Amino acid sequence: MNENTAGSLLSLNKGDPPFSSLRYLGTNRFHDANFDHTSQILAHNGIWIRRRDARWEAKRQTEGDFIRSAFEEINSLGRIHDLICRYLPGSPNARKNFDRKFSIMLDETDFGHSVGEVELEAEDAVEAHKEINAFLDKYSWFFQKERPKGKLTAYFERFPLHNHSYSG
Predict the structure, then answer these.
(1) Do the beta carbons of residue 104 and residue 98 sit within 8 Å?
(2) What is the CA radius of gyration of the chain?
(3) Which of 54, 77, 102, 162 has the fewest CB atoms within 10 Å, counting from its CB?
(4) Sheet holding 55-64, edge to edge
């Protein structure tokens, strides 16, 4: 049965027994790009990594088989990164902390990418941003002005993955 036939059949709700409550809520369009290593090690372990529109997502099979299964859906980039690191080349990142008035965290990956963040705990967000900007300007020899590249983006650029794209 193709999708149009299945969609029509569901819309008509003429099966026996019919659904007691069925209301069409509209159609959503999105773009998925799914990623795996050429060995398909993630899929073989019940893990699917995708970028849906602008968001990274992971699905990890928790039980069942191909027909009927349960999945944990993961939206946290940190948890997605940890999941990928369990199966793909490379070891966990090292995070160096430099603590003063500002907290400076520098994550260094084993594949040569570094990304960091500067935090300042404060009650007044506007004032905190001013202080952070002044700090970044003072130490501009270290902090880039360009938009940083995240660890997952750098990882996928460094280790090209098998990419399947489709619209659903």
Answers:
(1) yes
(2) 22
(3) 54
(4) 69-74, 55-64, 47-52, 31-36, 162-167
